[in-house]
Amino acid sequence: MRALSFAGALALFAAFAGGAVRAAPAIPVTVAVDVGRPGKPVNPVWRFFGADEPNYATMKDGRTTLATLGKLAPDRVYFRTHNLLTSGDGTAALKWGSTNAYTEDAESRPRYDWTIVDRIFDTYRARGVRPYVEVGFMPEALSSKPVPYQHDWRPGSGDLRTGWAYPPKDYAKWDALVFAWVTHCVERYGRQEVASWYFETWNEPNLPQYYWGGTQAEFFKLHDTTVRAVRRALPEARVGGPDIAGAGDQYLTQFMAHAAKAGTPTDFLSFHAKGNPTVVGTGAGSHVRMGLSAQLKAADHEYAQIAANPAFRTKPIIIGEADPEGCAACQGPANAYRNGTMYSSYTVASFVRLQALAERRGLNLEGILTWAFEFEDQAPFAGFRQLTSGGIDLPVINVFKLFAKLRGRELPAVSDHQPPLDAVMADGVRGAADIGSIAAIDGDRVAVLVWHYHDDDVAGPDAAVRVALAGLPRALRAGARVTQYRVDPGHSNSYAAWLGMGSPLAPTSVQRAALLKAAALAESVVPMVVKGAGGVVDVVVPRSGVTLVVVEPRG
């Protein structure tokens, strides 16, 4: 994988060389925030995460990463993972994991062993994270096509769909397994706790070449059986699905029609929406171009199906995987955006639009789940889609720290350089940069988030942003502390620091300490000029940067 485009390397060189390369004039931007007009409560849709590999959660860097996530919003962060019922010894591998929860004796009698899955859930709960329970995959002893069982997938080769992906040969035994598991969870964690979790069946059953070896009718039968078993063990359990891939089909419409006809309880609907990065140019002059438009179109296709169904249009919606592309464990040139601030700025720009599209259709978007975690014991900044590398925060995890600081009620925030929603959905951000904003107020505390995004991962001018605050409360006019938090090429950026060290494959203790320091969320005090009932804060937001300005009373 190419670590950095030529343009990106040039920008970093300029930063570390103290500006030896003449910078283009900054783009003047005004963000107008009406502090006196609070709206609806802030919806923390960002607090959902997930990964293919369940066993990483209990390993050293997995535990550290979960702890960071849990601190963002204790007991409100959820984690979804594949392979919670997959057979094996618990050894982690790319796009693989296992718990060995179900086996059979010589007389085909079920044996349940919750040791590994308990360890996973215990690790979540000890760090303030709750399970978003994906009920799957198929244990070897229950698979209708068990041989071969474990896949041999590797980045770029191997078959993914093997014995774990097939329907059960005995639905009664599957029913009993799910019932026993949920019953055990209630006994271990408590009824009220488990009732706060999400339960859904399988992953992307509309992709038969990857995750489902049966027919649609067989998946619907599996889903109905699963939901009945969960609800029999815990009648108040929150159940839903189908966590399909946003593949431009009508599978979600067919799922809703089936659930209504069968009377299968549905507390939430879930689907996935992914972007599609490409590489533009060749050789040293090539760069990644993100596919924001593709992700928004994929989501809106599913939104439209939900909005058209009166029986389901008020249901909470979880985008169960929302990412710039489709394979966290894959590497390659089109994924070169992941380590740096392209990923962090894309995350903000996409999440805001995914919310806006749902609101426009009058839908209830409850969560946007980032399918990224960590890959244990890999080379530093190896190019996987992850939140941390070797226990060191990447820029993308820092934007979730910014999201967590947006609380209270939404405020009107208008940037004169934020393109219209329809334009971004149709064409992405290929012309002028997307310099947008959202804001919130919590008591007398005002927070304004500003992002500077472009689909093309190349250098560009900074944005000179004037945040104009109208209607400031008296406590802020009398004297306020203004803090700027930054995630950009020069701040909260462990990857840039690693490149500056010469990209060591085995950082020394001193280098690791420096990387941890560089990864921390950067903050500084900035001035605010108060005039009448308003205030002005001037900040610089580099391209691919995200900034949060927090104005709060002194003391």
UniProtKB/TrEMBL annotation:
Belongs to the glycosyl hydrolase 39 family. The active site is at 204 (proton donor). Residues 30-520 form the Glycosyl hydrolases family 39 N-terminal catalytic domain. One of its GO terms (molecular function) is xylan 1,4-beta-xylosidase activity. Keywords: Glycosidase, Hydrolase, Signal. Its EC number is 3.2.1.37. It holds the Pfam family Glyco_hydro_39. InterPro entries: GH (IPR017853), GH39_as (IPR049165), GH39_cat (IPR049166), Glyco_hydro_39 (IPR000514), Glycosyl_Hydrolase_39 (IPR051923). PROSITE patterns: GLYCOSYL_HYDROL_F39. It is an enzyme of class 3 (hydrolase). This is Xylan 1,4-beta-xylosidase. GO terms for biological process: carbohydrate metabolic process. The keyword Signal applies. Residues 1-23 form the signal peptide.
